[in-house]
Amino acid sequence: MELNSVKDGSVMAAVTDVLIVGAGPTGLTLACDLARRGVPALVVERAEALFPGSRGKGIQPRTQEVFDDLGIIDAAEAAGGPYPVGMVWQDGEQQGEHRMFDVKEPTEDSPYDRPLMLPQWRTQEILYARLLELGGRDIEFGAALTGLAQDEEGVTAHLADGRTVRAAYAVAADGGRSAVRAALGIGMTGETVDPHPVLVADVRIPTLDRDNWHMFPPTEDGGGYLAICPLPGTPDFQLTAQFTDGTEPDTSLEGVRKVVAARTHLTADEVTEVRWASDFRPRAAIADRFREGRVFLAGDAAHVHSPAGGQGLNTSVQDAYNLGWKLGAVLRGGAPAALLDTYEAERLPVAAQMLGLSTRIHRGEERRGGATSQLGLGYRDSSLAVETRTGLPDDALRAGDRAPDGPCGTGKLFDAFRGPHFTLLTVGAPPELPPLDADLVHVHHIDSYAPYGDGVFLVRPDGYIGWAGVDATVTGLTDYFRLTLELR
Q1: CATH number for the domain that contains residue 62
Q2: Number of domains in the chain
Q3: What is the pLDDT of residue 30?
Q4: Same-domain status, 427 and 462
Q5: 378 part of a folded domain
Q6: What does the alpha-carbon distance between residue 326 and residue 337 come to, in Å, rounded to a whole number?
Q7: What's the pLDDT at 77?
Q8: Half-sphere exposure (CA, 13 Å, Cβ side) for 76?
Q9: What is the pLDDT of residues 121-174, one digit of tens each?
């Protein structure tokens, strides 16, 4: 289904392969991934511009690997920076440092070792620029969804301006208050993590140093915590302030000035500008299902996190990364439509796991650490994880695991993996290989590398091992393609 327009009564109807509702990090990641696969996609966004706030500002190591594959990691690193060390204040005096997470050094197999701080609006700008660079269609802003219907052949969406969009598949990436999810009648199960409302705002405070994340404990008169974090690459700070249950935070300039003056050593007029502000109640919820027919839920439309663990945006980006190659395989690679069933099967358990982690961190029951990096997540229980080797030690790399980085020729394995293709990696004595489509599967060999051990590893386009064996011709690599994906 090519992207074009057809007459639908008196209105022009857009026709595309994939309709993406929402131009946040989820929708833009999916649009970029589809664009590099040659899959026409249309992104519609109800707002008149990209989201302007810093809200999801932490890019975890696994998401940095996704950005590496999408070709935007250099831009993200140039625009972002490391997390600053926290500085705790009391009565105008510095009380000591507080580190948000344990710092670890990069390793050969995990080159991205710590979170990158990048305001959400900047992440979206980088993804948007990459989408256009890849030849994707421009976003249609001011295009609110008013209705959705589907049949055996596709999805028909109605927009507020009277237009319709006809697509083979649709993806709801329209946030926690998803209009698509509501139209599908899919419920969400969850809980209020904390009844206390939180104000979050991007502010300018020229007199405050930018070397630390400034933290102010709750005040004796009942005021909650307040934190002011410098946002790298900008003159802004992200301010977060907790209020008592039943309070409605004032998001105006005067309201923000008032809370800063009441809870810190700063004066009200030192806050010179509020560039964006919002309030929310921390909540954890997950959709009852991630798919209804030809429509998929991704990102906040599928799961809503407390921001404490820094998992929401990252889990959302990886939803899109998981779904993108599967839609491409079905729409362009000859794969059976049943492949799309694995999206919910793989992503719903991961989202549930990350929701639990975020909630525990919010409640102080767990510290940010290795789990928040998301490098340990995988799909061993997936039908797409086929491990044919036997007698492996407990710590061995298996089908379903993330494929580690490492040396490969004159470059790195991540260089070999980068792009929309599968990668067949042989380690140890080169085995005999079946005939493979060179465009679909890139073949690489390394003599030895401890994180892999010896064997043959088929790395999926999203960087996870789909099939692992000793000998590709004996243990069924061809069967994996033919019976599981039918890719030719």
Answers
A1: 3.50.50.60
A2: 3
A3: 98
A4: yes
A5: no
A6: 9
A7: 98
A8: 30
A9: 999 999 999 999 999 999 999 999 999 999 999 999 999 999 999 999 999 999
Q: What pLDDT score was predicted for residue 2?
A: 43
| ∠ CA 410-411-415, rounded to 5° | 145
Domain of residue 31 covers 4-80+118-189+284-373
**Alpha-carbon gap, residue 458 to 468, rounded angstroms:** 6
Q: Are 19 and 169 in contact (CB under 8 A)?
A: yes
Residues 448-479 have pLDDT tens digits of: 999 999 999 999 999 999 999 988 776 678 88
**SS3 at position 271:** coil
Which residue ranges of the chain lie beneath pLDDT 50?
Answer: 1-3, 6, 8-10, 487-488
Which two tokens mark 415? Answer: 């260089």
Handedness of CA 334, 8, 293, 326 (dihedral sign): positive
- Nearest one of 294, 346, 358 to 320, comparing CA atoms: 346
453: left (phi over 0), alpha (psi -120 to 50) or beta: left
pLDDT tens-digit series, residues 184-220 = 999 999 988 889 999 999 999 999 999 999 999 998 7
Q: Tokens standing for 327?
A: 């839609």
What CATH number does residue 93 fall under? 3.30.9.10
φ and ψ at residue 65, rounded to 5 degrees: -65, -40
Residues 156 and 232 in one domain: no
Q: What is the CATH number of the domain that holds 453?
A: 3.40.30.120
Report the alpha-carbon distance of residue 296 to residue 323 in Å, rounded: 9
Give alpha helix (H) positions in 71-185. Answer: 73-79, 120-133, 179-184
User: To which residue do tokens 């302007």 refer?
Assistant: 52
